[in-house]
Amino acid sequence: HNHICILAGVILAIEVSLGHDAPFGPKCSFWAEILSAFKLAKQERPTLQSRTEDLEVVNLGGGEETREIRVGKLMPRDLRQRLVELLKEYADIFAWSYRDMPSLDTAIVEHRLPLIPNTVPVQQQLRRMKSEVALKIKEGVEKKWNIGFFAVAEYPQWVTNIVLVPKKDGKVRMCVDYRDLTKASPKDNFPLLHINMLVDNTSQHALYSFMDGFSGYNQIWMALEDKEKTTFITT
């Protein structure tokens, strides 16, 4: 009798979880009460909806100069006003374009790309792409070329392709497919913090602020002996 009762309860639980009516009456009053409570709880379960905060665009520049930032509208008005005034006062310390980037002194920090011993360099073949994609790549390369981010590499051993990644604002981000180079690099044994630890650190705080460098990846120079490894195809 106990085995029949358990089997009936399992079948009923599956049927109720799928939103179906029970195919037969419960053989055990215990399971009848449990399943009734389960079905009621499922009906009363609140639905969670993701909410995107509305942002207000504020121009910190003067005259024809555009220096736009976005401030959340859920912030109290007086606090938002004080924040905007503070940002306007120190607007000149932020980088608004590639030309504003001072870069970091190589004596302090620089990118290095160590490789696993006896690694065979990989030269990716140029991938075919649509004309509109090629045009966007050309624009992205020229923008950084004019600033001095890129240099011509002759007879490189490592060659990779450019990949365009769509952004949330409809624009695209120009990336480079460094997967082959990543496979040939030693793994870092220092993992990031668990997300629950980061969330716990925000408790009992009304505001949570952080700093983000403008195009931060390009703020750090590549070590001279490792530059050739980052070569990518443009045409």
Automatic annotation (TrEMBL):
Domain Reverse transcriptase: 165-234
Alphabetical list of CDD domains matching this protein: RT_LTR
Keywords: Signal
Leader peptide range in chain numbering: 1-19
A Pfam family of this chain: RVT_1
Transmembrane segments: none
PANTHER family in the record: RNA-DIRECTED DNA POLYMERASE HOMOLOG, TRANSPOSON TY3-I GAG-POL POLYPROTEIN
Protein name, per record: Reverse transcriptase domain-containing protein
Organism expressing this protein natively: Mucuna pruriens
